[in-house]
Protein backbone atom coordinates (compact mmCIF):
# COMPACT_ATOMS: atom_id res chain seq x y z
CA UNK A 1 0.00 0.00 0.00
CA UNK A 2 2.82 2.33 0.83
CA UNK A 3 4.40 1.53 -2.50
CA UNK A 4 1.30 2.65 -4.34
CA UNK A 5 1.65 6.12 -2.85
CA UNK A 6 5.28 6.41 -3.85
CA UNK A 7 4.74 8.10 -7.18
CA UNK A 8 5.92 11.41 -8.61
CA UNK A 9 2.33 12.54 -8.34
CA UNK A 10 2.65 12.83 -4.59
CA UNK A 11 3.41 16.54 -4.62
CA UNK A 12 0.18 17.02 -6.53
CA UNK A 13 -1.76 15.29 -3.78
CA UNK A 14 -0.01 17.46 -1.19
CA UNK A 15 -1.22 20.48 -3.13
CA UNK A 16 -4.65 18.92 -3.29
CA UNK A 17 -4.58 18.43 0.48
CA UNK A 18 -3.68 22.07 0.94
CA UNK A 19 -6.48 23.14 -1.38
CA UNK A 20 -8.76 20.86 0.60
CA UNK A 21 -7.90 22.56 3.85
CA UNK A 22 -8.48 25.96 2.24
CA UNK A 23 -11.84 24.70 1.00
CA UNK A 24 -12.72 23.48 4.49
CA UNK A 25 -11.82 26.86 5.97
CA UNK A 26 -13.79 28.65 3.26
CA UNK A 27 -16.79 26.44 3.92
CA UNK A 28 -16.58 27.20 7.65
CA UNK A 29 -16.41 30.89 6.81
CA UNK A 30 -19.40 30.61 4.51
CA UNK A 31 -21.50 28.91 7.19
CA UNK A 32 -21.30 32.09 9.26
CA UNK A 33 -24.06 34.38 7.91
CA UNK A 34 -22.61 37.50 9.51
CA UNK A 35 -19.22 36.86 7.97
CA UNK A 36 -20.81 36.37 4.57
CA UNK A 37 -22.70 39.63 4.99
CA UNK A 38 -19.43 41.36 5.88
CA UNK A 39 -17.72 39.79 2.90
CA UNK A 40 -20.51 41.07 0.63
CA UNK A 41 -20.10 44.59 2.02
CA UNK A 42 -16.35 44.48 1.44
CA UNK A 43 -16.84 43.10 -2.08
CA UNK A 44 -19.33 45.86 -2.85
CA UNK A 45 -16.79 48.37 -1.59
CA UNK A 46 -14.09 46.89 -3.83
CA UNK A 47 -16.45 46.82 -6.81
CA UNK A 48 -17.37 50.44 -6.17
CA UNK A 49 -13.73 51.43 -6.13
CA UNK A 50 -12.83 49.40 -9.19
CA UNK A 51 -15.78 50.47 -11.31
CA UNK A 52 -16.11 54.05 -10.03
CA UNK A 53 -15.42 55.73 -13.40
CA UNK A 54 -17.96 53.51 -15.14
CA UNK A 55 -20.65 53.67 -12.47
CA UNK A 56 -20.45 57.32 -11.50
CA UNK A 57 -23.04 59.40 -13.36
CA UNK A 58 -21.01 62.61 -12.89
CA UNK A 59 -17.47 63.83 -12.44
CA UNK A 60 -16.95 63.78 -8.65
CA UNK A 61 -15.33 67.21 -8.67
CA UNK A 62 -17.56 68.92 -11.29
CA UNK A 63 -19.37 71.83 -9.62
CA UNK A 64 -22.85 72.96 -10.61
CA UNK A 65 -23.76 75.87 -8.41
CA UNK A 66 -27.20 76.21 -9.98
CA UNK A 67 -28.13 72.78 -8.60
CA UNK A 68 -26.53 72.88 -5.13
CA UNK A 69 -28.04 71.03 -2.18
CA UNK A 70 -30.61 69.12 -4.24
CA UNK A 71 -32.43 66.41 -2.28
CA UNK A 72 -31.96 62.74 -3.23
CA UNK A 73 -33.96 61.51 -6.18
CA UNK A 74 -34.17 62.10 -9.88
CA UNK A 75 -30.87 62.44 -11.71
CA UNK A 76 -28.94 62.74 -8.42
CA UNK A 77 -29.81 59.53 -6.48
CA UNK A 78 -28.16 60.85 -3.30
CA UNK A 79 -28.63 64.53 -4.02
CA UNK A 80 -25.93 67.17 -4.42
CA UNK A 81 -23.66 68.92 -1.95
CA UNK A 82 -23.03 72.56 -1.19
CA UNK A 83 -21.14 73.05 -4.47
CA UNK A 84 -23.60 71.14 -6.57
CA UNK A 85 -21.43 68.04 -6.90
CA UNK A 86 -23.19 64.71 -7.26
CA UNK A 87 -22.92 62.87 -3.90
CA UNK A 88 -23.35 59.40 -5.40
CA UNK A 89 -20.34 59.93 -7.69
CA UNK A 90 -18.30 61.28 -4.82
CA UNK A 91 -19.15 58.26 -2.66
CA UNK A 92 -18.05 55.92 -5.46
CA UNK A 93 -14.71 57.66 -5.90
CA UNK A 94 -14.36 57.97 -2.12
CA UNK A 95 -14.31 54.17 -1.91
CA UNK A 96 -11.00 54.26 -3.81
CA UNK A 97 -9.45 56.57 -1.22
CA UNK A 98 -10.69 54.50 1.69
CA UNK A 99 -9.44 51.23 0.21
CA UNK A 100 -6.10 52.80 -0.63
CA UNK A 101 -5.63 53.94 2.94
CA UNK A 102 -6.60 50.53 4.35
CA UNK A 103 -4.32 48.66 1.95
CA UNK A 104 -1.29 50.88 2.41
CA UNK A 105 -1.60 50.93 6.20
CA UNK A 106 -1.96 47.15 6.28
CA UNK A 107 1.08 46.64 4.07
CA UNK A 108 3.24 48.86 6.28
CA UNK A 109 1.93 47.97 9.70
CA UNK A 110 1.87 44.17 9.69
CA UNK A 111 5.51 43.58 8.66
CA UNK A 112 6.76 46.39 10.89
CA UNK A 113 4.91 45.12 13.96
CA UNK A 114 5.99 41.57 13.20
CA UNK A 115 9.62 42.61 12.90
CA UNK A 116 9.66 44.59 16.14
CA UNK A 117 7.69 42.00 18.10
CA UNK A 118 9.64 38.98 16.91
CA UNK A 119 12.98 40.68 17.49
CA UNK A 120 11.98 41.75 20.99
CA UNK A 121 10.54 38.38 21.90
CA UNK A 122 13.38 36.31 20.49
CA UNK A 123 16.37 38.18 21.85
CA UNK A 124 14.86 39.24 25.18
CA UNK A 125 17.04 41.16 27.60
CA UNK A 126 17.73 44.80 26.89
CA UNK A 127 16.68 44.51 23.24
CA UNK A 128 13.23 43.51 24.41
CA UNK A 129 13.13 46.20 27.08
CA UNK A 130 14.00 48.96 24.64
CA UNK A 131 11.66 47.82 21.86
CA UNK A 132 8.72 47.06 24.09
CA UNK A 133 9.04 50.30 26.07
CA UNK A 134 8.97 52.23 22.80
CA UNK A 135 5.89 50.21 21.88
CA UNK A 136 4.33 51.06 25.25
CA UNK A 137 4.96 54.74 24.67
CA UNK A 138 2.99 54.55 21.42
CA UNK A 139 0.23 52.56 23.10
CA UNK A 140 -0.01 55.06 25.95
CA UNK A 141 -1.67 57.66 23.70
CA UNK A 142 -5.13 57.25 22.22
CA UNK A 143 -4.64 56.29 18.58
CA UNK A 144 -6.61 59.16 17.07
CA UNK A 145 -4.98 61.80 19.26
CA UNK A 146 -1.51 60.58 18.36
CA UNK A 147 -2.41 60.45 14.66
CA UNK A 148 -3.77 63.99 14.93
CA UNK A 149 -0.59 65.22 16.54
CA UNK A 150 1.53 63.51 13.89
CA UNK A 151 -0.47 64.88 10.97
CA UNK A 152 -0.47 68.40 12.35
CA UNK A 153 3.29 68.12 12.77
CA UNK A 154 4.05 66.85 9.26
CA UNK A 155 1.24 68.66 7.45
CA UNK A 156 -2.24 67.52 6.45
CA UNK A 157 -2.48 65.39 3.31
CA UNK A 158 -3.65 61.96 2.31
CA UNK A 159 -0.11 60.51 2.32
CA UNK A 160 0.65 61.95 5.72
CA UNK A 161 -2.62 60.60 7.09
CA UNK A 162 -1.55 57.14 5.92
CA UNK A 163 1.84 57.58 7.57
CA UNK A 164 0.22 58.76 10.79
CA UNK A 165 -2.25 55.88 10.93
CA UNK A 166 0.53 53.38 10.24
CA UNK A 167 2.73 54.94 12.89
CA UNK A 168 0.00 54.61 15.48
CA UNK A 169 -1.23 51.10 14.69
CA UNK A 170 1.95 49.00 14.62
CA UNK A 171 2.36 48.66 18.41
CA UNK A 172 -0.58 46.26 18.72
CA UNK A 173 1.06 43.96 16.16
CA UNK A 174 4.38 44.14 17.96
CA UNK A 175 2.61 43.02 21.14
CA UNK A 176 0.90 40.09 19.44
CA UNK A 177 4.09 38.97 17.67
CA UNK A 178 6.16 39.28 20.84
CA UNK A 179 3.72 37.19 22.87
CA UNK A 180 3.78 34.44 20.24
CA UNK A 181 7.54 34.57 19.97
CA UNK A 182 8.13 34.31 23.70
CA UNK A 183 6.04 31.15 23.72
CA UNK A 184 7.99 29.75 20.76
CA UNK A 185 11.46 30.84 21.85
CA UNK A 186 11.82 28.01 24.33
CA UNK A 187 10.38 25.40 21.98
CA UNK A 188 12.52 22.39 21.31
CA UNK A 189 12.46 22.84 17.57
CA UNK A 190 14.04 26.25 17.98
CA UNK A 191 16.75 24.68 20.12
CA UNK A 192 17.11 21.98 17.47
CA UNK A 193 17.55 24.57 14.74
CA UNK A 194 20.15 26.36 16.86
CA UNK A 195 22.16 23.24 17.52
CA UNK A 196 22.05 22.39 13.86
CA UNK A 197 24.06 25.52 13.29
CA UNK A 198 21.30 27.92 12.29
CA UNK A 199 22.07 31.58 12.92
CA UNK A 200 19.68 33.79 14.88
CA UNK A 201 18.51 35.39 11.64
CA UNK A 202 17.70 32.03 10.15
CA UNK A 203 15.83 30.83 13.21
CA UNK A 204 13.75 34.00 13.37
CA UNK A 205 12.96 34.17 9.68
CA UNK A 206 12.34 30.51 9.08
CA UNK A 207 11.05 29.04 12.31
CA UNK A 208 9.49 31.81 14.36
CA UNK A 209 8.08 34.50 12.09
CA UNK A 210 5.96 32.13 9.96
CA UNK A 211 4.24 30.86 13.11
CA UNK A 212 3.31 34.39 14.18
CA UNK A 213 1.80 35.33 10.84
CA UNK A 214 -1.68 33.89 11.45
CA UNK A 215 -2.23 35.84 14.68
CA UNK A 216 -0.99 39.00 13.01
CA UNK A 217 -3.32 38.44 10.03
CA UNK A 218 -6.34 37.96 12.26
CA UNK A 219 -5.43 41.06 14.19
CA UNK A 220 -5.02 42.94 10.92
CA UNK A 221 -8.46 42.07 9.53
CA UNK A 222 -10.04 43.07 12.83
CA UNK A 223 -8.11 46.32 12.74
CA UNK A 224 -9.20 47.32 9.25
CA UNK A 225 -12.50 48.71 10.54
CA UNK A 226 -10.51 50.86 12.94
CA UNK A 227 -8.31 52.09 10.10
CA UNK A 228 -11.40 53.10 8.10
CA UNK A 229 -12.71 55.03 11.10
CA UNK A 230 -9.41 56.72 11.89
CA UNK A 231 -9.00 57.76 8.26
CA UNK A 232 -12.53 59.18 8.23
CA UNK A 233 -11.86 60.91 11.55
CA UNK A 234 -8.74 62.57 10.18
CA UNK A 235 -10.62 63.58 7.05
CA UNK A 236 -13.47 64.99 9.12
CA UNK A 237 -11.03 67.17 11.04
CA UNK A 238 -9.49 68.38 7.81
CA UNK A 239 -6.20 66.55 8.43
CA UNK A 240 -6.62 63.76 5.90
CA UNK A 241 -7.41 64.01 2.22
CA UNK A 242 -7.63 67.63 1.15
CA UNK A 243 -10.76 69.27 -0.32
CA UNK A 244 -11.42 68.52 -3.88
CA UNK A 245 -10.76 64.83 -3.10
CA UNK A 246 -14.03 63.03 -2.30
CA UNK A 247 -12.94 61.57 1.04
CA UNK A 248 -15.91 60.39 3.12
CA UNK A 249 -14.81 61.98 6.38
CA UNK A 250 -14.18 65.32 4.70
CA UNK A 251 -17.56 65.09 2.97
CA UNK A 252 -19.26 64.61 6.34
CA UNK A 253 -17.43 67.60 7.72
CA UNK A 254 -18.68 69.73 4.84
CA UNK A 255 -22.23 68.49 5.37
CA UNK A 256 -22.20 69.41 9.06
CA UNK A 257 -23.23 73.00 8.29
CA UNK A 258 -26.40 71.84 6.51
CA UNK A 259 -27.30 69.07 8.90
CA UNK A 260 -30.73 70.38 9.93
CA UNK A 261 -32.07 71.25 6.49
CA UNK A 262 -30.06 69.18 4.01
CA UNK A 263 -29.33 66.07 6.10
CA UNK A 264 -28.25 63.92 3.12
CA UNK A 265 -25.03 65.84 2.56
CA UNK A 266 -23.60 64.47 5.83
CA UNK A 267 -25.72 61.33 6.25
CA UNK A 268 -24.80 59.60 2.99
CA UNK A 269 -21.02 59.60 3.54
CA UNK A 270 -21.70 58.73 7.18
CA UNK A 271 -23.58 55.63 6.08
CA UNK A 272 -20.80 54.73 3.70
CA UNK A 273 -18.26 54.87 6.55
CA UNK A 274 -20.56 52.84 8.78
CA UNK A 275 -21.10 50.11 6.20
CA UNK A 276 -17.42 49.91 5.22
CA UNK A 277 -16.20 49.54 8.79
CA UNK A 278 -19.01 47.11 9.59
CA UNK A 279 -18.04 44.99 6.59
CA UNK A 280 -14.38 44.81 7.59
CA UNK A 281 -15.31 44.06 11.17
CA UNK A 282 -17.59 41.17 10.27
CA UNK A 283 -15.02 39.69 7.88
CA UNK A 284 -12.38 40.02 10.60
CA UNK A 285 -14.58 38.20 13.11
CA UNK A 286 -15.36 35.46 10.64
CA UNK A 287 -11.69 35.01 9.70
CA UNK A 288 -10.66 34.85 13.34
CA UNK A 289 -13.13 32.05 13.97
CA UNK A 290 -11.71 30.12 11.03
CA UNK A 291 -7.99 30.81 11.36
CA UNK A 292 -7.56 31.02 15.10
CA UNK A 293 -9.84 28.54 16.85
CA UNK A 294 -8.22 29.33 20.21
CA UNK A 295 -9.75 32.79 20.31
CA UNK A 296 -13.10 32.03 18.79
CA UNK A 297 -14.60 31.24 22.18
CA UNK A 298 -16.24 28.10 20.90
CA UNK B 1 35.96 -0.54 16.09
CA UNK B 2 35.87 -0.73 19.85
CA UNK B 3 39.28 -2.38 20.08
CA UNK B 4 41.35 0.32 18.38
CA UNK B 5 40.13 3.31 20.30
CA UNK B 6 41.87 6.24 18.72
CA UNK B 7 44.85 7.57 20.60
CA UNK B 8 43.56 11.11 19.99
CA UNK B 9 40.00 11.30 21.36
CA UNK B 10 37.43 13.35 19.46
CA UNK B 11 36.29 15.20 22.48
CA UNK B 12 38.27 15.98 25.60
CA UNK B 13 36.58 17.62 28.56
CA UNK B 14 38.48 18.69 31.66
CA UNK B 15 37.04 20.37 34.71
CA UNK B 16 33.82 21.52 33.02
CA UNK B 17 31.69 23.70 35.26
CA UNK B 18 28.33 25.34 34.62
CA UNK B 19 26.66 27.64 37.09
CA UNK B 20 23.47 29.63 37.03
CA UNK B 21 23.41 32.85 39.03
CA UNK B 22 20.06 33.34 40.70
CA UNK B 23 18.38 35.37 43.38
CA UNK B 24 19.18 32.94 46.15
CA UNK B 25 22.85 32.56 45.14
CA UNK B 26 24.42 30.48 42.42
CA UNK B 27 23.23 27.09 41.36
CA UNK B 28 26.03 24.80 40.28
CA UNK B 29 24.57 22.48 37.68
CA UNK B 30 27.86 20.91 36.60
CA UNK B 31 30.85 20.85 38.94
CA UNK B 32 34.13 19.74 37.49
CA UNK B 33 33.36 17.06 34.94
CA UNK B 34 36.20 15.26 33.12
CA UNK B 35 35.82 12.77 30.31
CA UNK B 36 37.04 11.83 26.87
CA UNK B 37 35.03 10.62 23.95
CA UNK B 38 36.58 8.57 21.18
CA UNK B 39 34.90 6.80 18.29
CA UNK B 40 32.70 4.85 20.67
CA UNK B 41 29.34 4.81 22.33
CA UNK B 42 29.64 6.56 25.65
CA UNK B 43 26.66 6.50 27.99
CA UNK B 44 25.95 9.32 30.40
CA UNK B 45 23.48 8.35 33.11
CA UNK B 46 22.12 10.00 36.18
CA UNK B 47 18.82 11.01 37.66
CA UNK B 48 16.87 14.13 36.72
CA UNK B 49 18.78 17.28 37.51
CA UNK B 50 22.18 15.60 37.69
CA UNK B 51 23.49 17.84 34.91
CA UNK B 52 23.54 15.39 32.01
CA UNK B 53 21.81 17.62 29.50
CA UNK B 54 23.65 20.69 30.71
CA UNK B 55 26.96 18.97 29.95
CA UNK B 56 25.74 18.30 26.42
CA UNK B 57 24.55 21.83 25.90
CA UNK B 58 27.77 23.25 27.30
CA UNK B 59 29.70 21.31 24.65
CA UNK B 60 27.72 23.13 21.97
CA UNK B 61 27.77 26.43 23.83
CA UNK B 62 24.00 26.45 23.99
CA UNK B 63 23.55 26.63 27.74
CA UNK B 64 20.46 28.78 28.25
CA UNK B 65 20.93 32.21 29.77
CA UNK B 66 22.07 33.15 32.33
CA UNK B 67 24.25 30.05 32.62
CA UNK B 68 28.01 30.53 32.87
CA UNK B 69 30.31 27.85 31.49
CA UNK B 70 33.94 27.45 32.48
CA UNK B 71 36.33 24.63 31.75
CA UNK B 72 39.97 23.78 32.19
CA UNK B 73 39.87 22.31 28.76
CA UNK B 74 37.14 21.74 26.22
CA UNK B 75 38.66 20.33 23.10
CA UNK B 76 37.07 18.94 19.97
CA UNK B 77 39.35 17.42 17.32
CA UNK B 78 42.12 19.82 18.25
CA UNK B 79 39.89 22.92 18.48
CA UNK B 80 39.53 24.72 21.76
CA UNK B 81 35.75 25.06 22.07
CA UNK B 82 36.04 27.73 24.75
CA UNK B 83 38.04 30.04 22.48
CA UNK B 84 36.20 29.58 19.18
CA UNK B 85 34.31 32.66 17.93
CA UNK B 86 30.55 32.35 17.64
CA UNK B 87 30.63 32.11 13.82
CA UNK B 88 33.01 29.16 13.92
CA UNK B 89 30.88 27.60 16.63
CA UNK B 90 27.85 27.89 14.38
CA UNK B 91 29.66 26.09 11.60
CA UNK B 92 30.63 23.38 14.02
CA UNK B 93 27.13 22.85 15.37
CA UNK B 94 25.25 20.41 13.25
CA UNK B 95 28.16 19.98 10.87
CA UNK B 96 30.66 18.33 13.19
CA UNK B 97 28.79 17.91 16.47
CA UNK B 98 25.08 17.21 16.30
CA UNK B 99 22.53 16.57 18.97
CA UNK B 100 19.28 14.63 19.02
CA UNK B 101 16.63 15.96 21.36
CA UNK B 102 14.26 14.02 23.50
CA UNK B 103 10.82 14.39 21.99
CA UNK B 104 10.26 14.62 18.22
CA UNK B 105 6.82 16.11 18.84
CA UNK B 106 8.48 19.27 20.09
CA UNK B 107 11.80 19.24 18.33
CA UNK B 108 10.50 19.39 14.78
CA UNK B 109 8.98 22.58 13.45
CA UNK B 110 5.24 21.87 13.25
CA UNK B 111 4.57 23.99 10.17
CA UNK B 112 7.40 22.77 7.95
CA UNK B 113 7.52 19.47 6.15
CA UNK B 114 10.05 16.99 7.46
CA UNK B 115 11.88 16.87 4.14
CA UNK B 116 12.24 20.63 4.03
CA UNK B 117 13.67 20.71 7.56
CA UNK B 118 16.22 18.05 6.75
CA UNK B 119 17.20 19.71 3.48
CA UNK B 120 17.47 23.00 5.37
CA UNK B 121 20.18 21.52 7.57
CA UNK B 122 22.18 20.33 4.63
CA UNK B 123 21.83 23.66 2.84
CA UNK B 124 22.93 25.51 5.97
CA UNK B 125 26.27 23.72 5.92
CA UNK B 126 27.06 22.97 2.31
CA UNK B 127 26.94 24.99 -0.83
CA UNK B 128 24.60 23.13 -3.07
CA UNK B 129 21.44 23.22 -5.06
CA UNK B 130 18.03 22.46 -3.68
CA UNK B 131 17.81 19.42 -5.94
CA UNK B 132 20.99 17.98 -4.43
CA UNK B 133 19.67 18.64 -0.93
CA UNK B 134 16.45 16.89 -1.80
CA UNK B 135 18.27 13.84 -3.14
CA UNK B 136 20.38 13.60 -0.01
CA UNK B 137 17.33 14.08 2.19
CA UNK B 138 15.55 11.16 0.57
CA UNK B 139 18.68 9.00 0.82
CA UNK B 140 19.09 9.91 4.48
CA UNK B 141 15.46 9.16 5.26
CA UNK B 142 15.97 5.81 3.59
CA UNK B 143 18.99 5.06 5.72
CA UNK B 144 17.12 5.70 8.96
CA UNK B 145 14.65 3.05 7.95
CA UNK B 146 11.81 4.81 6.16
CA UNK B 147 10.48 2.43 3.54
CA UNK B 148 8.85 5.29 1.73
CA UNK B 149 11.16 8.32 2.00
CA UNK B 150 9.02 10.33 -0.41
CA UNK B 151 6.01 10.15 1.82
CA UNK B 152 8.05 10.94 4.94
CA UNK B 153 9.66 13.95 3.29
CA UNK B 154 6.27 15.35 2.31
CA UNK B 155 4.77 14.81 5.75
CA UNK B 156 4.38 17.36 8.48
CA UNK B 157 5.68 16.29 11.89
CA UNK B 158 2.19 15.64 13.30
CA UNK B 159 1.56 13.17 10.50
CA UNK B 160 4.39 10.92 11.69
CA UNK B 161 4.30 8.53 14.61
CA UNK B 162 6.67 9.05 17.55
CA UNK B 163 9.22 6.56 16.27
CA UNK B 164 9.07 7.93 12.74
CA UNK B 165 9.47 11.45 14.12
CA UNK B 166 12.54 10.49 16.11
CA UNK B 167 14.07 8.77 13.09
CA UNK B 168 13.35 11.88 11.02
CA UNK B 169 15.11 13.87 13.73
CA UNK B 170 18.10 11.51 13.52
CA UNK B 171 18.12 11.94 9.74
CA UNK B 172 18.11 15.69 10.21
CA UNK B 173 21.03 15.53 12.60
CA UNK B 174 23.08 13.11 10.57
CA UNK B 175 22.67 14.53 7.09
CA UNK B 176 25.68 16.81 7.58
CA UNK B 177 27.69 13.74 8.67
CA UNK B 178 28.93 14.97 12.05
CA UNK B 179 31.84 13.34 13.84
CA UNK B 180 30.21 13.47 17.23
CA UNK B 181 26.57 12.83 17.92
CA UNK B 182 25.00 13.72 21.23
CA UNK B 183 21.73 11.95 21.89
CA UNK B 184 19.85 13.53 24.77
CA UNK B 185 17.40 10.87 25.94
CA UNK B 186 16.53 10.03 22.34
CA UNK B 187 14.20 7.23 23.33
CA UNK B 188 12.53 8.37 26.57
CA UNK B 189 9.48 9.69 24.78
CA UNK B 190 9.05 6.50 22.76
CA UNK B 191 7.44 3.21 23.63
CA UNK B 192 9.56 0.11 23.98
CA UNK B 193 9.10 -1.48 20.58
CA UNK B 194 9.80 1.75 18.77
CA UNK B 195 12.74 2.39 21.08
CA UNK B 196 14.59 -0.67 19.88
CA UNK B 197 14.03 0.32 16.30
CA UNK B 198 15.52 3.77 16.90
CA UNK B 199 18.45 2.33 18.85
CA UNK B 200 19.17 -0.09 16.02
CA UNK B 201 19.29 2.79 13.55
CA UNK B 202 21.63 4.73 15.84
CA UNK B 203 23.88 1.76 16.44
CA UNK B 204 24.11 1.00 12.75
CA UNK B 205 24.97 4.57 11.81
CA UNK B 206 27.55 4.97 14.54
CA UNK B 207 29.29 1.76 13.52
CA UNK B 208 29.19 2.48 9.84
CA UNK B 209 30.39 6.06 10.00
CA UNK B 210 32.75 5.72 12.92
CA UNK B 211 31.15 8.52 14.89
CA UNK B 212 31.53 9.25 18.54
CA UNK B 213 28.21 8.96 20.33
CA UNK B 214 27.42 10.52 23.67
CA UNK B 215 24.23 8.84 24.78
CA UNK B 216 22.41 10.57 27.60
CA UNK B 217 19.81 8.63 29.49
CA UNK B 218 18.41 7.93 32.92
CA UNK B 219 17.89 4.31 32.05
CA UNK B 220 20.95 2.49 33.34
CA UNK B 221 19.81 -0.88 32.01
CA UNK B 222 19.36 0.47 28.52
CA UNK B 223 22.71 2.24 28.51
CA UNK B 224 24.47 -0.83 29.86
CA UNK B 225 23.24 -2.93 26.96
CA UNK B 226 23.76 -0.28 24.28
CA UNK B 227 26.96 1.61 25.09
CA UNK B 228 30.63 0.74 25.38
CA UNK B 229 31.42 2.80 28.47
CA UNK B 230 29.20 4.45 31.04
CA UNK B 231 29.64 7.62 33.04
CA UNK B 232 27.49 7.90 36.13
CA UNK B 233 26.65 11.44 37.18
CA UNK B 234 25.19 12.70 40.40
CA UNK B 235 24.51 16.35 41.29
CA UNK B 236 26.78 17.70 38.58
CA UNK B 237 29.69 15.38 39.32
CA UNK B 238 30.97 12.20 37.75
CA UNK B 239 30.85 9.51 40.38
CA UNK B 240 32.14 6.63 38.35
CA UNK B 241 33.15 5.60 34.85
CA UNK B 242 32.67 1.92 34.11
CA UNK B 243 32.82 -0.43 31.17
CA UNK B 244 29.33 -1.39 30.07
CA UNK B 245 30.26 -5.05 30.25
CA UNK B 246 31.43 -4.56 33.82
CA UNK B 247 28.39 -2.69 35.06
CA UNK B 248 27.36 -5.60 37.23
CA UNK B 249 30.55 -5.21 39.23
CA UNK B 250 30.33 -1.44 39.63
CA UNK B 251 31.67 -0.39 42.99
CA UNK B 252 30.15 2.95 43.72
CA UNK B 253 27.18 2.74 46.12
CA UNK B 254 25.16 5.14 43.95
CA UNK B 255 25.61 3.02 40.83
CA UNK B 256 24.71 -0.04 42.84
CA UNK B 257 21.64 1.77 44.10
CA UNK B 258 20.55 2.62 40.56
CA UNK B 259 21.07 -0.98 39.51
CA UNK B 260 19.02 -2.22 42.44
CA UNK B 261 16.22 0.17 41.63
CA UNK B 262 15.74 -1.52 38.26
CA UNK B 263 12.47 -3.47 38.46
CA UNK B 264 12.79 -7.17 37.65
CA UNK B 265 9.95 -9.21 36.37
CA UNK B 266 10.85 -12.37 38.25
CA UNK B 267 10.72 -11.06 41.82
CA UNK B 268 7.52 -9.53 43.09
CA UNK B 269 8.86 -6.66 45.12
CA UNK B 270 6.81 -5.29 47.96
CA UNK B 271 9.20 -2.55 48.96
CA UNK B 272 10.87 -0.37 46.38
CA UNK B 273 14.63 0.02 46.54
CA UNK B 274 15.90 3.40 47.69
CA UNK B 275 18.84 4.93 45.86
CA UNK B 276 21.42 6.00 48.44
CA UNK B 277 22.67 9.57 48.43
CA UNK B 278 25.54 10.99 50.39
CA UNK B 279 26.46 14.68 50.58
CA UNK B 280 30.07 13.55 50.91
CA UNK B 281 30.04 12.57 47.21
CA UNK B 282 29.85 16.21 46.30
CA UNK B 283 33.18 16.97 47.93
CA UNK B 284 34.98 13.88 46.72
CA UNK B 285 37.17 14.53 43.67
CA UNK B 286 35.88 12.71 40.62
CA UNK B 287 37.71 9.46 39.99
Kindly describe this structure.
- The complex is a heterodimer of chains A (298) and B (287).
- Chain A has helices spanning 2-5, 10-30, 33-55, 87-123, 125-140, 143-154, 158-185, 188-195, 200-236, 248-255, 264-291.
- Chain A has 298 residues and is mainly α.
- Chain A is globular.
- The two termini of chain A are 39 Å apart.
- The model of chain A is unreliable at 1-10 (pLDDT under 50).
- By secondary structure, chain B is an alpha/beta fold.
- Chain B is 36% helix and 23% strand.
- Chain B is built from 11 helices and 11 strands.
- In chain B, the strands form 2 sheets. A 6-stranded mixed sheet of chain B has the order 7-8-9-3-10-11, sandwiched between helices.
- Chain B is globular, with a radius of gyration of 19 Å.
- The A-B interface holds A 2-3, 5-6, 10-11, 14, 124-125, 187-189, 191-199, 202, 206-207, 210-211 and B 60, 62, 65, 90-95, 98-99, 101-103, 106-112, 120-121, 124-125, 147-148, 150-151, 154, 169, 172-173, 176.
Outline the fold blueprint:
The complex is a heterodimer of chains A (298) and B (287).
Chain A: H1 2-5, H2 10-30, H3 33-55, H4 87-123, H5 125-140, H6 143-154, H7 158-185, H8 188-195, H9 200-236, H10 248-255, H11 264-291
Chain B: E1 11-22, E2 25-37, E3 41-45, H1 52-59, E4 68-70, E5 73-76, E6 79-80, H2 86-92, E7 97-100, H3 104-107, H4 114-125, H5 130-143, H6 149-154, H7 162-174, E8 180-184, H8 192-209, E9 212-217, H9 220-226, E10 229-234, E11 237-243, H10 253-261, H11 280-283
Parallel strand pairs in B: 3-9, 3-10, 7-8, 8-9
Antiparallel strand pairs in B: 1-2, 1-4, 1-5, 5-6, 10-11
Helix pairs in contact in B: 4-5, 4-7, 5-7, 7-8
